[in-house]
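Lecture notes, continued. The same structure-token format from the folding unit now serves as the input rather than the output. Read the line below as a description of shape only.
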């Protein structure tokens, strides 16, 4: 267990360094390529209820995806992370204006405030068809290296108990986040697909 934790930590450090070396222009360019791949993806096009992360500076930009999803009449949900725990909810986003008025967290990402308790949680209603997953590292077998909090693994376990079952999961990645092999244990949930720019 300790060896696995150490291997994950070392890999996180290495990937963070690789992504930090990318210019903002390069991140924007790759984000555009990944978004276009998503827009032509049959799973994205057939999904009505989707969860989208609001990107941090070291993640594939998702603003364009949210614009596209609303334009196609999809119902969008975004993460709300509870501090000092591994609990996350997926709360409904009503519009782009709604997104732009959300408060910023200490991680510099927008999410509904603590007093914002009127929003629909995806699993309290119709569940989810698709979750777009962030992460630090991925391998081509669908193994994911998160930031160590377990938010998404815990949420996917909750999804499995929903009548709709586990949503399809697509990770969005810079090619620098691809690894030969991500060290995992039985609690780490496997991702269906990783989208990145492949030459």
């Amino acid at each position: 267990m300790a060896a696995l934790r150490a291997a994950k930590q070392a890999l996180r450090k290495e990937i963070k360094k690789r992504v930090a070396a990318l210019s903002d222009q390069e991140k924007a360019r790759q984000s555009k390529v990944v978004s276009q791949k998503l827009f032509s993806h049959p799973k994205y096009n057939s999904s009505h209820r989707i969860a989208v992360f609001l990107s941090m500076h070291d993640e594939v930009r998702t603003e364009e995806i949210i614009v596209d999803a609303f334009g196609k009449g999809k119902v969008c949900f975004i993460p709300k992370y509870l501090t000092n725990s591994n609990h996350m909810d997926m709360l409904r986003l009503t519009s782009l204006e709604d997104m732009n008025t959300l408060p910023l967290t200490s991680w510099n990402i927008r999410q509904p405030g603590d007093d914002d308790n009127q929003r629909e949680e995806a699993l309290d209603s119709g569940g989810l068809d698709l979750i777009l997953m962030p992460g630090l590292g991925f391998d081509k077998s669908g193994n994911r290296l998160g930031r160590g909090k377990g938010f998404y693994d815990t949420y996917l376990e909750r999804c499995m108990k929903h009548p709709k079952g586990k949503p399809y999961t697509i990770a969005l990645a810079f090619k620098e986040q691809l690894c030969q092999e991500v060290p995992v244990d039985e609690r780490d949930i496997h991702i269906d697909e990783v989208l990145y720019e492949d030459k």
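Point for the exam: The longest strand covers residues 75-81.
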